[in-house]
Amino acid sequence: MTLKYLQTKNCHRIIISLIFLALYPTFCYTQNLYDREHSQKYAEYLFSSRQHTLAAEEFERLVYFDRNNINFKYYLIKSYRLSGDLNSGIDRIYSFYGSSLDTMPQIMATEFVKLELLSDSLSVFRTFIQQKNRLSLENKAVVQSCDLLLNGDYEQANLLAEDAAGKNPDFPRDIKILSEKAARIKFKSPVIAAGFSAIIPGTGKFYTKNWADGVVSMLFVVANAWQAYRGFNEHGVKSGYGWTFASLSVSFYIGNIFGAVKAAKRYNKNKKNEIDNQVFDFVRSDGF
Questions:
Q1: 70-125 pLDDT per residue, tens
Q2: How many domains does the chain have?
Q3: Is 159 helix (H, G, I), strand (E, B) or coil?
Q4: 261 C-beta neighbours (distance < 10 Å), count
Q5: In terms of domains, do 141 and 198 share one?
Q6: 8 A C-beta contact, residue 179 and residue 145
Q7: Is position 250 within any domain?
Q8: Which of 24, 59, 79, 108 is most buried by a 10 A CB count?
Q9: Structural domain of residue 210, as residue ranges?
Q10: Domain for residue 125, yes or no?
Q11: Which residues does 211 contact at the CB level (< 8 Å), separation at least 6?
Q12: Eight-state DSSP code of residue 101
């Protein structure tokens, strides 16, 4: 009985092994986490959870599986943009389309202008949007408004945004509001700032809303001028004390004029940077 038992047991083992070997390939295939279906689900999960760097890696795998799938290409480029890897996104677009950028579908063309805009390649960006391409008319109006804002043409940007919003109720409200805000900015004239400070030290910086520096400039010039007056009044024109403070007063006076010019330029630059950053934030947030 022992021999028959062992023979039966071995027979069962052999049958189980054969069944396992027969089903193993199917089992492996269904559990292959690197096939197209699983890669797509994983890529979509990474993208939706804002893990854009990892999502780009998965979409690269999907593009390898199916190079003709426009959705895989689109989400690959978008993942690169949202992860901040702008150069990789631009390079991949050129690898897909080469010099035939005007053959891109609309969604890819829109991603391309976003990448070029965010990477500060404004010359390429402007050349592209002026040429015949696959951008929709609505998106082209938004892109041109962004370009005008970045170029400092705030009045023109506001006119374009108002016209586009009147024709299309879906025109982004953020860009319309930003264009209106930019058009209301009153930039400071360095010449006027210098003139104010030449007449009354410190007032050029008041003009640029730099109140603290204006007060300091005024006090330094006035205090040294007063000390110089005291020296000359007590010891005459040969007073070393008087000439020392007179020299300091003149130095501070001239410095306060140049400082007012710089303050006006700095004020204007800060205002422009504020608008530029809001344009970039709009593009990053997929406003169009």
A1: 999 999 999 999 999 999 999 999 999 887 777 788 889 889 989 988 887 777 77
A2: 3
A3: helix
A4: 19
A5: no
A6: yes
A7: yes
A8: 59
A9: 190-277
A10: no
A11: 205
A12: G
